[in-house]
Amino acid sequence: MEMDLKQAQVLILLVLASMLAVGMANKNIASTQRWNHGFNHTDWFAKHQNGTGGPKRIVVGGSENWHFGFNYTDWALKNGPFYLNDTLVFKYDPPVDNSSHPHSVYLLPNFWSYLNCDLTRAKRLADVTQGGGEGFEFRLKRWQPHYFACGESNGFHCDKGLMKFFVMPLFRRWHG
Ligand SMILES: *[C@@H]1O[C@H](CO)[C@@H](O)[C@H](O)[C@H]1NC(C)=O
Ligand SMILES: *[C@@H]1O[C@H](CO)[C@@H](O)[C@H](O)[C@H]1NC(C)=O
Ligand SMILES: *[C@@H]1O[C@H](CO)[C@@H](O)[C@H](O)[C@H]1NC(C)=O
Ligand SMILES: *[C@@H]1O[C@H](CO)[C@@H](O)[C@H](O)[C@H]1NC(C)=O
Ligand SMILES: *[C@@H]1O[C@H](CO)[C@@H](O)[C@H](O)[C@H]1NC(C)=O
Ligand SMILES: [Cu+2]
């Protein structure tokens, strides 16, 4: 078991290293990006070498924070993987008046509800006020898929606003 994981890891590193070599040999940035389909292997490789560090605090959306119209599914795919005990931070402004369009954080029960933005069996993690200040923090404690969404406007923020994403936290030691 231990040996198999080690071998798999070495294989992955070799594949990554060869990708990295191709990327670096290619001086022309435009053609590099075409080859990579916009995926930066240098970035990815650097990030994965840090897998042995302690738990991280990750702001959802990065500098975009948690707002309507940003593709969080895409953000999660590009910024993952995330690890057990990492903390996701949701930052959003609390409502100030009647014309505010505040946000919230819900956990959806499964992939189907994620796809359809079906909030009927969702669990509210944070209300419209909890994203202020340092933000609402959610620690990835369980080894299971997590489906996050904004629960406002009966699924409109989730669906049309793209305020949803999924995360499968990994065990950090598998990447050490
Ligand atoms: C990939 O990311 C690295 C580090 O952030 C950067 O130096 C490099 O220019 C990027 N490569 C491309 C093709 O965008
Ligand atoms: C990796 O960790 C080092 C030190 O812990 C840090 O300076 C660096 O920014 C990290 N790189 C990435 C890509 O997270
Ligand atoms: C959001 O990003 C995902 C993953 O990259 C992509 O499949 C999807 O089409 C994007 N959605 C929109 C509306 O652009
Ligand atoms: C996460 O943190 C808890 C409490 O700090 C600890 O007991 C647990 O072993 C940690 N889990 C992992 C996978 O690091
Ligand atoms: C907000 O709406 C409520 C009723 O919907 C109204 O009573 C209140 O005056 C409004 N407040 C402001 C600041 O517009
Ligand atoms: Cu919202």
UniProtKB/TrEMBL annotation:
User: What are the recorded GO MF terms, alphabetically?
Assistant: electron transfer activity
Q: Which PROSITE patterns match?
A: PHYTOCYANIN
Gene3D superfamilies per record: Cupredoxins - blue copper proteins (2.60.40.420)
Residues of the signal peptide: 1-25
All residue ranges annotated as the Phytocyanin domain in the record: 56-171
SUPFAM superfamilies recorded = Cupredoxins
Q: Which Pfam families match?
A: Cu_bind_like
> Which keywords does the record carry?
Signal
**PANTHER family attached to this UniProt entry:** GLYCINE-RICH PROTEIN-LIKE, OS06G0216700 PROTEIN
Protein name, UniProt field: Phytocyanin domain-containing protein
Organism in which the protein naturally occurs: Actinidia rufa
Q: What is the lineage of its organism?
A: Eukaryota, Viridiplantae, Streptophyta, Embryophyta, Tracheophyta
